[in-house]
Amino acid sequence: MEEEVARRNGMANDQDDEGRMASVKPDFLSGDAAGGGGGFLPPLEIAVDLPDFRYAKLSNIVAQHVLPQLVALHGQQPPAAPPTVIKRTAEIAELVRILLGPESDEAADYLLRLKDGGVSLDDLHAELLEPAARLLGDLWNEDKADFIDVTIGVSRLQRLVHVFEGLGQVPDYDEKRRVLLAAAPGEQHSLGSTIVQKFLRAGGWHVWSCASPDTGEPAEIVSREWFAVVGFSLGSDVHLASLKDAITLVRERSLNRRVGVMIGGSAVTRDPGLVARVGADGTAANGPAAVLLAKKLLAEALV
Known about the structure:
Elements: H1 2-8, E1 21-24, E2 28-29, E3 39-40, E4 44-47, H2 51-73, H3 89-99, H4 106-116, H5 121-141, H6 147-164, E5 178-183, H7 191-202, E6 206-210, H8 217-222, E7 229-233, H9 240-253, E8 260-264, H10 266-270, H11 274-278, E9 282-283, H12 287-302
Parallel strand pairs: 5-6, 5-7, 7-8, 8-9
Antiparallel strand pairs: 1-4, 2-3
């Protein structure tokens, strides 16, 4: 029962809620080792870096110290080192902890501190907000957080985008949260698309769906109704050419001249490079990430 409670809380018995500390249960001592009467050792606190953070630190040490010394021994100039991208694993975990906690301004204050520390808005999106949305979706998929908690967390993420992109200045903003979801031409809607619809609606989006296999049907719909975003689900790469044509038609005929296009599905998960090949603007790994990506695309179209 205790293991099940720990699993539902999304952490192992030896992890805290930030995943950075392990607390070892006290061991029982008897006899002389415990002063004659037996007792417990005090808890031992062990600081444990997250794997990605350890890898980043090790990479920096090797690049900055070990390699130059080895090259110097052989009398050669070191090659230019590629820029090291340090994953913000700890910051993502902290943001998700805040998002799933009580209502407060803590999340906005946290992002402001990072922004004041030199992190750009684009980097906040790419390295923090979007990964946080993906993590929320993973917690839901793994049954470590329920749908209501994840929905609240995603809504708070949308609010952060709202604040930092200045969307409060846009008239009738809520009415512009309109998205059309369609299967790629030649494919049927998948379970993934249904889940995305569920999260988008919970996040306050007005969702239309198109089940027609006709390449031109989504373009016909967006020529009659204004949409901020059009999303396509793609299960295989068989219909890539048809999907590219459908996206081209959507952009040509859309009432929203800056309509955003996102794609998802198992084919894109296997090959994220398909985003550029079909002319889309982005992809999302799960429902919560799709909500945040749609919000970002709307912000780019309106601000």
